[in-house]
Amino acid sequence: MANDTFLWSADMTEVSLSLRGLKTSVPRSLSGASDRAPKNSGAGYWEISFSTRKRHYNEYRELFAFLIAQRGQYGEFDFVINQFKNTRSSYGGNILVNGASQATSEIAVDGMTVSTNQVLRMGDFVQLGNNKKVYMIVQDLKSDGAGEGILYLHAPVVTAPNNNDAIVFRNVIFNVANTEDDNTLDMDTVLRCGWDLTFAEAWN
Q1: pLDDT of the residue at 8
Q2: H or E element that contains 136
Q3: Are residues 182 and 109 part of one domain?
Q4: Residues 61 and 103 grouped into a single domain
C-alpha cells in the first residue's frame, strides 16, 4: 500500500492534533516487514496523533478500510497536515542544495533571491529533493548578497542530498505508517468520543 495518501472528507477534520519528534532507540515493530531496516538514524522520526470529531460509525468505514488495507504497521502512506504543510514565509522563489555530500544538520543552499531575510522561518518543515524524510528548521533562513545561505535543520540528514536538489517547503507531506498492528473500529466509542489515531514517520 506504499504511496497511498490519507484522505478524508473535509467535514471530518480533527478536533486535536499533536506532532512529536521521537528518538530512535526502540525499533518499530513491522508486521511481516523483515526486509525493512529498523529506524536507526540520529534524525529521529515524527509521531502524529490526532482525535476525530464524533460521527456516526458509518462515516468511519472508509477510514477503517484504508487502515486495514495497510496490513498493520507494514504499509506506508502519505499524510498531509494542513497546519504544517507550508512555510509561514511569503518567499516564492527557489532554494537549492549548494554542494553534494552534506551529511549534516547544516545544509548550504543557494539559488535564492539575494539579501533576503526570513526566506524560511524557524519552525517551518522541509524536505530535501525527493527524500521523504521531513525536517524542522531551527533558525530562520536568510540569503546573502550572492543568494546563498545555511539551512539549519533539527537533526542531521538521513541521506545526503545531491547538489542542486530542490528544498521542498510548500506541500510538505509526511510519509507514515500505523503504530499498531490492530486497528479496531469501536462503534460505541466513535459515537461518544470520536476516534484517536497515531501514525509514525516511516521514511526508510
Answers
A1: 47
A2: strand 135-136
A3: no
A4: no
What is the spatial distance between Cα 112 and Cα 115, in angstroms, rounded to a whole number?
9
What is the dihedral angle through the alpha carbons of 177, 182, 185, 186, rounded to the nearest 10 degrees? -130
What secondary structure letter does DSSP report for 28?
Answer: P
Domain containing residue 135 = 86-170
Cell numbers that stand for 188 in this block: 460505541
CA–CA dist 19, 85 (Å, integer): 13
Residues 6+ apart with CB under 8 A from 151: 95, 106, 107, 108, 109, 120, 126, 137, 141, 167
Reported pTM: 0.82
Query: Which pairing describes strands 125-128 and 167-168: parallel, antiparallel, or unpaired?
Result: antiparallel
**For 69-111, what is each residue's pLDDT tens digit?**
888 888 888 888 888 889 999 999 999 999 999 999 999 999 9
The total number of structural domains that make up the chain: 2
Buried-state track 36-46, b at ≥16 Cβ within 10 A, e below 16: beebebebbbb
166 and 136 both lie in a single domain: yes
Parallel, antiparallel or unpaired: strands 4-5 and 77-79:
parallel
Rounded Cα distance, 203 and 132, in Å: 6
Q: Are 81 and 13 in contact (CB under 8 A)?
A: no
Say how far apart CA 4 and CA 77 lie, in whole Å. 5
Q: Of residues 113 and 15, which shows the higher confidence score? A: 113
